[in-house]
Amino acid sequence: MIYKIILSDEAKKYLGTLDVKTRTVISRKIESLKESPDTQGKQLSGNLARFRTIHAAGRYRVIYEVKTETIMVMVIAVGIRKEGAKVDVYETMKKLLRLKIL
Fold first, then answer.
1. What φ, ψ does residue 70 adopt, rounded to 5°?
2. Torsion of CA 97, 12, 68, 36, to 10 degrees
3. Which of 1, 38, 62, 87 has its CA at a distance of 20 to 30 angstroms from the CA of residue 76?
4. How far apart are the first and last CA of the chain?
5. To which H or E segment does residue 29 belong?
6. pLDDT at residue 99 greater than cutoff 90
7. Do the Cβ atoms of 52 and 64 come closer than 8 Å?
8. Residue 6 — φ and ψ, nearest 5°?
9. Which of 47, 52, 61, 56 shows the shortest CA–CA distance to 3?
């Protein structure tokens, strides 16, 4: 089954800030989610448990949600994993959840 890939505005904006090489690597990783997205990456835990994450390019992560009922993958965020920093992609996700944007 082929899943449709949808990127959030946040993910699109972040991808636009990256250099071409990094953006290409991450885009290919996102495209690979079209097939079996629920078996790729890792299930997150806690209040992010409905999302999955994959390593995309070095410290870059792609956070996504699989919507099996609509055969869709929603890419919520793309960013750098930098534990303890404000720019950490997981901290950004938690902030979006607190603001009830997701």
1. -110, 5
2. -120
3. 1
4. 26
5. helix 20-31
6. no
7. yes
8. -120, 130
9. 52
The 52-57 sheet, strands edge to edge: 4-7, 72-80, 60-67, 52-57, 42-43
Domain 4-98 indexed as CATH 3.30.2310.20: yes
Tokens 């949808």, residue located: 6
Say if strands 60-67 and 52-57 run parallel, antiparallel, or are unpaired: antiparallel
Residue ranges of domains in the chain? 4-98
Degrees, nearest 5: CA angle 22-45-93: 50
Q: Are 28 and 94 in contact (CB under 8 A)?
A: no
Residue 57, both tokens: 């390019």
8: which 2 tokens?
Answer: 């959030």
Residue 65 has pLDDT above 80, yes or no: yes
Mean pLDDT over 71-84 rounds to 90
